[in-house]
Design goal:
The complex is a heterodimer of chains A (719) and B (155). By secondary structure, chain A is an alpha+beta fold. Chain A has five domains: 4-135 and 305-326, Up-down Bundle (Four Helix Bundle (Hemerythrin (Met), subunit A)); 154-288, Histidine kinase CheA-like, P2 response regulator-binding domain (Alpha-Beta Plaits, 2-Layer Sandwich); 342-398; 404-584, Histidine kinase-like ATPase, C-terminal domain (Heat Shock Protein 90, 2-Layer Sandwich), CATH 3.30.565; 589-718, Beta Barrel (OB fold (Dihydrolipoamide Acetyltransferase, E2P)). Helix content of chain A is 47%, strand content 21%. In chain A, helix 2 packs antiparallel against helix 3, helix 3 runs antiparallel to helix 4 (83-106) and helix 15 (342-367) packs antiparallel against helix 16. The longest helix of chain A has 27 residues, at 265-291. Chain B has one domain (2-149): CheA-289, Domain 4 (OB fold (Dihydrolipoamide Acetyltransferase, E2P), Beta Barrel), CATH 2.40.50. Chain B has helices at 2-8, 68-71, 145-149, and strands at residues 13-21, 24-29, 33-38, 52-58, 61-67, 84-89, 95-100, 102-110, 114-115, 129-135, 138-143. Chain B has a six-stranded mixed sheet. Chain B has a five-stranded mixed sheet with strand order 3-6-7-5-4. Chain B is globular. Classes of the chains: A alpha+beta (719), B mainly beta (155).
Chain lengths: 719, 155
């Protein structure tokens, strides 16, 4: 039976079932006797098994079957839910998720039997129901170690496996002729690193300052797409010594180690060729493997004991290299889709029909044109058209909007795991999960948010003993709140931990040489907290494997800023801290105020504008040699756009000036402009890759009705 | 290296667009050229690299435009009606314009008409030239576009 057409549905539903299983398991852990939950879990597991079976994914079916058995016993009251059991079940869910991802990428479930996991489930079942199992769970860890050992034995000098193309061989030979050094090296990224691609990019950048990268394995494209495990290999040509290259690579944070040495071009070519043959051989064996999956299947679940190739899913790092890597190059078989509420589509349909009516009436008025008295009618129709297009734009944007729920659902589970790992009691409270954001934004903020939650759990909250000593509730609380604020969406991660110790941050910054002691004296506490967002800065006294290596907040910041948002922190020592992310609601099209400064046209996003004021030059006061105005009880700094945009000041001094008051959170600034043109809907375009605006004041450009380009001023950068 | 170039140079030809900068002629590999447009209004971008003159509207797309003269530290000249903007696409979706004095012609060079550029060992600047083409008694400096467009400043 050809089941490909059902693949998308299968993946969708698998997702849903896995999520519901995960949710229900969380509930079950807290209320082990809840019969409704048990029934719900049983149903979800059962449907999952059925679906996997129908689609012919035998391994997935086998695993779900064993999971279902466990639930069945629980439901019948023959065994009790223990914390250990829940752990194993969560691992099972991870493994199923793994299957799902592999299927999504390759249409095949891969060759991982998860035998150790099946055994663990069986053991839970035996223990729970009183039957004695003969074998200890040690087998699973054995298997894990074996694979990782095997990998490191032949794997550390991975650059030797790079297959070289002709032009790369030429480049190497040429370099040798010029007496440049050739290095082969393999860079290992720490396995806990969240944004591997970003780290790899930094390594590339560092190396390119010293020399030239001839080839990387995997290719740069794959590295950008994070299609690699935790290491990548390079051939580098450089005039510098190897020590320098290694030092440059190691200066990037979260790099575990670098292995490399000087090689000759001949070596590199020979290595490459030898490897090519090996790859061919491997591919052949791979093909025969997939050709006879049925035979394997029948054998595997029955005798799962000495399966060295299948590590438990709990060790995703060790396992990552198995099935998915082999076919890493192929594109995912399923397109990214958005589920759209049918009501939104109806609205869209209505608007399109209105658009057609508007067009028709324009056509008819154009046909009867020339007759007097028609111009008011014509204007009316233009206005109508305008309102229709505005509505249409809004609805299309709404179609692109998805609730942030899709990323927050995995957080409770993560906090639960963290709580166990860190041995701290903590509880996650979420609100506003239905807040909607553009699909692309939602996809991007998952990692930064996860990082901030980890940060709160690890650094923010004190240990349980400390909390008791301080008279706080021993269980720490982390809050994730999302809400809409004007044209922005704000997501706050708040904890009731110890807050940020400003003095400690200052000391650390001075110690590290980030700032001088003198500078430290004069910095406000806000400025000091901002230091946390600098690369490689951490105040955690102990580096844990959850966070504390001083990475992350800088990456979080750059990621959010790339989306046009910003991050801010509020903290109170002893009471906790709040990290807020502010993101633009929509991308691409915005309402903007067009202004003229020094003869050039600029756009300012209406979302950031508070008011527009007509102010006399005499009202400008000076505070700390900076220009400010006093407006309705607020002291607002003045920014002369002529200066920041590098324009000549107008010669004749005017006694009145137009000030656009912009606002970011609760901060204000007044931008002095020459003239106002008016409000306009503009389409945001990027300035292109190569042009580099140093002050980041220009967030993009737009094309005006007359074909001219106007730049968009990012008011947030001027505050 | 020699063997390979011997193998390849039999029939391999490359087309170059020849541009004028002052008295010199430069060649741009035609496969990277997306478009050649006349000079048009350029919107200045404040605080960017000084060799970027700004951005233009190319059929609804915003394209950054750099001055070749400023990039290679030559004096600026006034724009004439021969001045052109060559739109280069090294990668899809990342166009960039280069202002040149004039566009002369398209030449076809076989590989054995292209000499490797001589690179002085004392000079650490990246060379904009990756070869010299010979055609009909004139020499054409073949531009290495990656170096021309890259953000690295030549000090």
């Amino acid at each position: 039976m050809d089941v490909n057409q059902y693949l998308e549905i299968f993946l969708d539903e698998t997702n849903e079932h896995l999520q519901s299983l995960s949710d229900q398991l969380m509930i079950l852990e807290n209320e082990p006797e809840n019969a409704d939950t048990i029934n719900e879990i049983f149903r979800a597991a059962h449907s999952l098994k059925g679906m996997a079976g129908t689609m012919g994914y035998k391994r997935m079916q086998a695993l779900t079957h064993d999971m279902e058995n466990v639930f069945s016993e629980i439901r019948n009251g023959k065994m009790k839910v223990t914390s250990n059991l829940v752990d194993v079940l969560f691992q099972t869910l991870d493994a199923l998720e793994e299957y799902k991802n592999t299927i999504q990428e390759t249409q095949d479930e891969g060759t991982n039997d998860n035998a150790a996991l099946i055994k663990a489930l069986q053991q839970c079942l035996d223990e729970g129901t009183g039957t004695v199992s003969e074998e200890a769970p040690a087998a699973s860890s054995d298997a894990k170690e074996e694979t990782s050992e095997a990998a490191s034995a032949n794997g550390d000098k991975k650059w030797k496996n790079i297959a070289l193309q002709e032009h790369e061989i030429n480049a190497l030979k040429e370099a040798e002729e010029k007496k440049l050094n050739i290095y082969g090296c393999t860079v290992f990224i720490q396995e806990s690193c969240i944004l591997k691609a970003a780290r790899a990019f930094l390594v590339f950048k560092a190396v390119e300052e010293l020399g030239e990268i001839i080839i990387s394995e995997p290719s740069t494209q794959d590295i950008e797409d994070e299609k690699f495990d935790f290491d990548f290999s390079l051939y580098i040509i450089s005039e510098e010594g190897y020590d320098k290259v290694e030092a440059a690579i190691m200066s990037v944070s979260e790099i575990d180690r670098v292995i490399g040495e000087k090689v000759t071009a001949a070596d590199a070519i020979a290595n490459g060729e030898a490897n090519e043959k090996a790859v061919e051989a491997k591919e052949e064996s791979g093909a025969s493997e997939t050709a006879q999956p049925a035979r394997e299947e029948t054998a595997a679940p029955a005798a799962p004991a000495p399966a060295a190739s299948s590590a438990p899913a709990a060790a995703p790092a060790a396992q990552g290299g198995n099935a998915p890597a082999k076919k890493g190059a192929s594109k995912p078989v399923v397109n990214r889709t958005v589920r759209v509420d049918i009501e939104k589509l109806d609205v869209l349909m209505n608007l399109v029909s209105e658009l057609i009516i508007a067009k028709n009436s324009l056509v008819s008025s154009a046909a009867s044109g020339g007759q007097s008295g028609n111009s008011s009618n014509f204007n009316e129709q233009i206005e109508y058209l305008e309102s229709v297009t505005t509505n249409l734009h809004e609805s299309v944007m709404k179609v692109r909007m998805v609730p942030i729920e899709s990323i927050t659902t995995k957080f409770p589970r993560m906090i639960r795991d963290l709580s166990k790992k860190l041995n701290k009691k903590m509880e996650l409270y979420m609100s506003g999960e239905d807040t909607e954001l553009d699909r692309t934004v939602v996809d991007e903020i998952g990692d930064p948010l996860m990082h901030m939650l980890r940060n709160s759990a690890d650094h923010g909250l004190e240990s349980t003993e400390d909390r008791i000593a301080k008279g706080k509730n021993p269980t720490g609380s982390i809050f994730l709140d999302a809400y809409q604020d004007g044209n922005n969406v704000v997501i706050e991660v708040k904890d009731d931990g110890n807050g940020i110790d400003v003095e400690a941050v200052k000391r650390k910054a001075i110690e590290r040489g980030t700032i001088t002691a003198e500078q430290g004296e004069n910095m406000s506490s806000k400025e000091i907290i901002d230091l946390l967002f600098l690369p490689s800065f951490s105040t955690a006294k102990v580096v844990s494997d959850v966070s504390g290596r001083g990475v992350g907040l800088d990456v979080v910041k750059s990621k959010i800023e790339a989306l046009g948002g910003d991050v801010s922190v509020k903290t109170k020592l002893g009471e906790g801290s709040t990290f807020s992310i502010r993101l633009p609601l929509t991308l691409a099209i915005i309402q903007a105020l067009m202004v003229i400064v020094g003869g050039e046209t600029y756009a300012i996003s209406l979302g950031s504008i508070d008011t527009i004021e007509d102010i006399s030059e005499n009202d400008v006061k000076y505070v700390e040699a900076k220009e400010v105005i006093h407006l309705r009880g607020n002291v607002i700094p003045i920014v002369r756009l002529h200066e920041v945009l590098g324009l000549e000041m107008p010669k004749e001094s005017r006694d009145r000036m137009i000030v656009v008051i912009v606002k970011k959170g609760d901060q204000y600034a007044g931008l002095v402009v020459d003239e106002l043109i008016g409000q306009q809907e503009i389409v945001i375009k990027s300035l292109g890759r190569y042009i580099n605006c140093t002050s980041r004041m220009i967030s993009g450009a737009t094309i005006l009705g007359d074909g001219e380009v106007a730049l968009i001023i990012d008011a947030n950068c001027l505050i | 290296m020699d063997e390979i170039s011997l193998m390849n140079n039999e029939y391999d030809t490359t087309q170059f667009i020849v541009i004028n900068i002052g008295d010199e002629q430069y060649g741009i590999d035609i496969k990277y050229v997306d478009n050649i447009v006349r000079m048009q209004k350029i919107t200045r971008v404040p605080n960017c690299q000084d060799y970027f003159k700004g951005v233009i509207n190319l059929r609804g797309e915003v394209v950054p435009v750099m001055s070749f003269r400023m990039k290679v530290h030559l004096p600026e000249v006034d724009y004439t009606n021969k001045t052109r903007i060559i739109i280069i696409k090294l990668e899809p979706n990342a166009p960039v314009g280069i202002i040149v004095d004039a566009v002369k012609e398209v030449v076809t060079l076989t590989d054995n008409n292209i000499d490797a550029a001589s690179r002085s060992s004392t000079n650490n600047d990246p060379s904009y030239i990756n070869g010299i083409g010979k055609t009909g008694g004139t020499l054409i400096s073949l531009l290495d576009l990656n170096v021309v467009i890259s953000e690295k400043e030549t000090a």
